[in-house]
TrEMBL record:
InterPro entries: FAD/NAD-bd_sf. It comes from [Actinomadura] parvosata subsp. kistnae. This is FAD/NAD(P)-binding domain-containing protein.
């Protein structure tokens, strides 16, 4: 996910849910309201992560590699990308 803690699980989701709680759609029952609030929170976080990906992947000087990373040395990062290892350093 391209957004870190704030966009993924902290600031943005919390504030989105607080906003929804402060501005409820009174036409909905409680269960429907909660589903709608959760969907709006998820859509907002997904849109922000997509925008972050575009910003990271667009400069000529960077390449985004999606996968799991670990340090293989003091200046080398090993990324497992769909079963293949790629080293960057």
């Amino acid at each position: 996910m391209y957004g870190g803690t704030c966009i993924t699980i902290a600031c943005v989701p919390t504030k989105a849910l607080v906003y929804q709680a402060e501005h409820p759609d009174r036409r909905l029952g409680e269960a429907a309201w909660f589903e709608q609030a959760a969907a709006k929170k998820t859509a907002l976080a997904e849109a922000m992560r997509a925008r972050n990906f575009e910003m990271f992947d667009s400069p000529e000087t960077s390449t985004v590699i999606t996968g799991r990373a670990r340090f293989a040395g003091p200046h080398t990062l090993l990324v497992t990308d769909a079963g293949a290892d790629r080293a960057a350093g």
